[in-house]
Design brief:
324 residues, alpha/beta, five-stranded mixed sheet, 10 helices, 35% helix, globular, binds zinc ion
Length: 324
């Protein structure tokens, strides 16, 4: 069932700005929920919709079409549609792998939806959409090279260069979570098998479960990341040890990104980005791990947080976006 909700815009108003009548529409298709956002050309939210993800390909097309029509009816015509998907999207918008939505795999969603709507459709990995949102008007606004790092249940990432998301030859650009963490640091804990089947992936050291596991190994009880951070702030020795190890591991993993990509800004998203000390402490630690003598890369928390995937999808539909 479609539920349209009124706008609840977190952005400051832009009175006096001349706006195009064309709106932007973005979809974020997650494992269970499908979210849609209509915004104006300046990024101001106009309205949104949210519902369960349809469980067949045909129903997905019908739903996207119906939601887009409802948002256009309420807010005006859209120039293009952007979609964020948790998976690998190849050249031409082919859905190579889609996490938890197997009925979309191998389907020409972009072409079919573009035909149904009669307008361009762009599809990108949700981490790329996160990075795009933060690069356009989020925490990395104005930066040329942006790495968006997501620290949550999984560890993902996306790269934006010059305002465009980078897909890559294998549609995996930015997937740092499945590189091994440098062995010297990893040696102080047991190896863990990753969801990808490999052992010792960065994701198994930096996701939420990893911090909880490390704390439990010291304190004997299980807490979530933000609670561990609160205890560490209060001086709890076990929490301080676990958080210090987490920060050092994150610094090592991100130093590898800086040495290869040399981004202007790294934006942290995902549940663990709520730990405020990360952006303050990690750059102090990575300074000795990065080959440049005085690293200028900034580490900042996401401005739009969990909204960034959806906002990035809406920005994706720009006429100058690479896949439109
Ligand atoms: Zn892995």
């Amino acid at each position: 069932m479609l539920r349209l909700a009124p706008a609840h815009d977190s952005r400051p108003g832009r009175s006096g700005q001349r706006r195009s009548r064309m709106i932007r529409i973005g979809f974020d298709i997650g494992g269970s929920k499908l979210a849609a956002l209509a915004m104006d050309q300046g990024g101001r939210e106009l309205g949104r919709a949210r519902q369960d993800v349809p469980r067949t390909y045909a129903a997905t097309i019908e739903t996207l079409e119906a939601v887009a029509a409802a948002l256009e009816g309420a807010h005006g015509p859209a120039g293009a549609i952007g979609i964020a998907i948790p998976g690998m999207i190849g050249a031409g918008g082919a859905l190579i792998r889609v996490v938890n939505l197997p009925w979309l795999e191998g389907r020409p969603l972009r072409a079919d939806l573009a035909q149904a709507l009669g307008k361009p459709v762009a599809i990108a990995n949700d981490a790329n959409c996160f990075a795009l949102s933060e690069a356009i008007d989020g925490a990395a606004a104005g930066a040329d090279v942006v790495f968006g790092a997501i620290l949550g249940t999984g560890v993902g990432g996306g790269i934006v260069v010059g305002g465009r998301p980078l897909t890559g030859a294998n549609a995996i650009a930015g997937e740092w979570g499945h590189n091994p963490l440098p062995a010297g640091e990893a040696a102080d804990g047991p190896p863990v098998v990753c969801g990808c089947g490999r052992t010792g992936c960065i994701e198994t050291w930096l996701n939420g479960a990893a911090l909880a596991r490390d704390y439990r190994s010291i304190a004997g009880r299980r807490l979530g990341g933000p609670e561990i951070a609160r205890l560490a702030d209060g001086g709890d020795p076990a929490a301080r040890t676990a958080l210090a190890r987490y920060q050092r591991r994150l610094a090592m993993a991100l130093a590898g990104i800086v040495n290869i990509l040399d981004p202007d800004v790294i934006v942290l998203g995902g549940g663990l980005s709520a730990i405020k000390s990360l952006c303050a402490e990690v750059p102090k630690l990575w300074a000795s791990m990065i080959v440049a003598p005085d690293p200028q890369t900034r580490l900042v928390p996401a401005r739009f947080g969990p909204e960034s995937g959806l906002r990035g999808a809406a920005w994706l539909g720009r006429r100058d976006a690479p896949d439109t």
